Amino acid sequence: MQSQGGNAGRLTTHVLDTASGKPAEGLRIELYRVDGDRQTHIKSVKTNDDGRCDEPLLSGERMQTGTYELQFHAGDYLGGAAKRGDNPFLDVIPIRFGIDNQGAHYHVPLLLSPYGYSTYRGS
């Protein structure tokens, strides 16, 4: 299926809570475009009950080549599970990545626990 302007590219994410073995529902995510030292806010979303966003983070004409950063607000989501004193071990997790083909599907999943995380380019 082609999106706006014949561009089938899109950016998606999925967050899994590996400590509970379930999708991370209600986790806030911020998307930024990065140009040198400048970050431009593009979108704020929260994950649904499947740990996904209800629509692509980027698609159509908004899907452009360049450098982007997803900021996953893990501290808010994890609450007391990751706290020692007043500070969570993990708070905001930034993942910076590049898009070099605006017609491709870029999927950036996050596997999250209170004391660690991992990511990869998914499909």
Automatic annotation (TrEMBL):
Protein name: 5-hydroxyisourate hydrolase
Source superkingdom: Bacteria
SUPFAM superfamilies the UniProt entry points to: Transthyretin (synonym: prealbumin)
Catalytic activity of the protein: 5-hydroxyisourate + H2O = 5-hydroxy-2-oxo-4-ureido-2,5-dihydro-1H-imidazole-5-carboxylate + H(+)
Residues that coordinate or bind substrate: 14, 52, 120
A Pfam family reported for this protein in Swiss-Prot or TrEMBL: Transthyretin
Protein's organism: Ensifer adhaerens
Keyword list, A-Z: Hydrolase, Plasmid, Purine metabolism
Gene Ontology MF annotations: hydroxyisourate hydrolase activity
Biological processes annotated in GO: purine nucleobase metabolic process
Enzyme superclass (EC): hydrolase
Description of how the protein assembles with itself and partners: Homotetramer.
